[in-house]
Specification:
The protein has twelve helices and 17 strands. By secondary structure, it is an alpha/beta fold. Among the domains are: 39-218, no CATH class; 322-460.
């Protein structure tokens, strides 16, 4: 099942061939690039992998249906790589599994890497650590697993056998937490070499927040450009701040629709050798699992070539574009304007955001002019003035000539900004995952909400 980030979830066939290609063309290549760029990762330190057991259902004929994600517990020979013991990987509750990931990571002062599919998962792991550190330290000190966790008796017994009282480590941890959380990762784990997670696209803001706050001074590597449909590209340049991915011609066959032709009735595709550096395209893929000339909705920019193969930068998904009058404001453009506006709000730090087009909001917002309803979660600010809110509209006009022309004509109303309560987006993500049966490992926050109930949920969390 696809994650349903920019549309409804779709079922796709998963085959041994596509999974093998992902490991050979993707994982093996990125491990080599990682060890070349960060030689310290080539050692015997353990990795903390934030992973949650996905839920599968059965088809009428007994075929399992669920997210396309690697399950550590199904690869027993790999479990020694991770700080989390095997029983914890099968705990069904995301909240309880995260507590166990954190508990066993904190016990090990020599953690070498933090790993997850997406930077958002790592970010929310640190916010949970900030909330529950006292309970975690107490468990380490006393050598137990919190009684608040709803664990099966057999699982609890096997985990508690691995937790011995460690007052010395607990005292170290307590001192680090009492210093504050900026740069906490390197203080907890002095030999931490890397955060391994995708921090491009919709995960860009989480990567930035981690680097600025919890993970100061720790290198990040965003290894893959991939989807449920399969591996698309690999990042051979781990140390570059921009996330560029070399397309993998052996994992799937790619065609390219020029961005300028996307509204044509029968747009003509280009092949790899026909694309031009600096131009934007929608990807069309054919894979070994039976997808034939499938439009996945990703818009990429060709930024160069490596051995005549295109190197791309992910820009946005077509389904995540704001469009109330034909202006077509992409996620990349909107986020750029939002970051400029937030920089003009003293003390404010962006935590998360989503937008809704006024058409889906109905009577809940009042006013008839088409506009963007923007929901923002911030740190450091509890209230925004009308002047501050209007700065976002000004920044958007500065960055988009088309949007500005509609604003000048009065065809589009000013952006309306709602500041939501702390944790609102975390709650929203849980609602979205429950609705779509998406795993936390593959979930990506929707930047443009297409369901009224999601927009209404955030409207109910508005504090200013």
């Amino acid at each position: 099942m696809t994650s349903g980030t920019s549309g409804s979830s779709a079922m796709l066939l998963s085959t041994k061939d596509t999974n093998t290609e992902f490991f050979l063309q993707g994982v093996a290549v990125c491990l080599d690039a990682m060890q070349r760029a960060f030689p310290a990762t080539n050692n015997l330190q353990r990795t903390t992998k934030f992973f949650y057991t996905p839920t599968f259902r059965q088809s009428e004929n007994g075929i399992p249906i669920g997210p396309n994600s690697f399950t550590p517990a199904s690869y027993h020979h790999m479990l020694n790589l991770y700080t989390t013991p095997a029983p914890a990987f099968n705990v069904p509750s995301e909240k309880d599994a995260l507590y166990l990931h954190l508990l066993f990571a904190l016990k090990d002062p020599c953690v070498g890497a933090l790993e997850s599919n997406f930077a958002s998962t790592v970010f929310y792991a640190f916010t949970a650590l900030q909330d529950r550190w006292q309970e975690l330290v107490r468990d380490i000190e006393e050598g137990k697993v919190s009684s608040d966790l709803a664990l099966e008796p057999k699982v609890r017994t096997s985990l508690e056998a691995l937790v011995k009282p460690d007052p010395k480590r607990a005292a170290q941890l307590r001192a680090h937490f009492q210093e504050g959380f900026r740069g906490i990762a390197r203080r907890l784990w002095p030999h931490l070499n890397l955060v391994l997670a995708v921090d491009s696209g919709s995960n860009q803001i989480y990567g930035e927040m981690l680097r600025e706050n919890y993970c100061q001074g720790v290198p990040f590597y965003s290894p893959f450009y991939a989807a449920t449909e399969g591996l698309i590209g690999v990042n051979l340049w781990p140390q570059k701040p921009s996330r560029h991915y070399l397309l993998c011609p052996c994992s799937m066959f790619c065609e390219f629709l020029p961005e300028s032709s996307l509204e044509d009735e029968s747009p003509q595709t280009l092949l790899m050798e026909e694309v031009t550096e600096g131009h934007n395209y929608e990807l069309v893929i054919t894979n070994a699992s039976g997808l034939y000339r499938y439009r996945i909705g990703d818009i990429v920019k060709v930024v160069g070539f490596h051995n005549r193969c295109p190197i791309v930068e992910f820009l946005y998904r077509r389904g995540q574009m704001l469009n109330v009058r034909g202006e077509k404001v992409s996620e990349t453009l909107f986020l750029g304007a939002l970051k400029k506006a937030v920089a003009q709000w003293p003390g404010a730090q962006l935590v998360d955001y989503s937008c809704a087009e006024s058409g889906i909001m109905g009577d809940s917002i009042g006013g008839s002019d088409p506009h963007y309803q923007v929901f923002i979660e911030l740190k450091g600010v509890r209230k925004l003035s009308e002047e501050q809110r209007y700065k976002l509209d000004i920044c958007l006009q500065q960055d988009s000539a088309v949007y500005k022309s509609f604003r000048v004509k009065g065809s589009i109303g000013s952006v309306r900004v709602q500041l939501v309560a702390e944790g609102a987006f975390r709650e929203l993500s849980k609602k979205m995952m429950d609705f779509s049966n998406t795993s936390p490992n593959t979930f990506k926050m929707q930047r443009v909400l297409r369901k009224k109930e999601y927009a209404d949920f955030l409207l109910g969390k508005t504090v200013s």
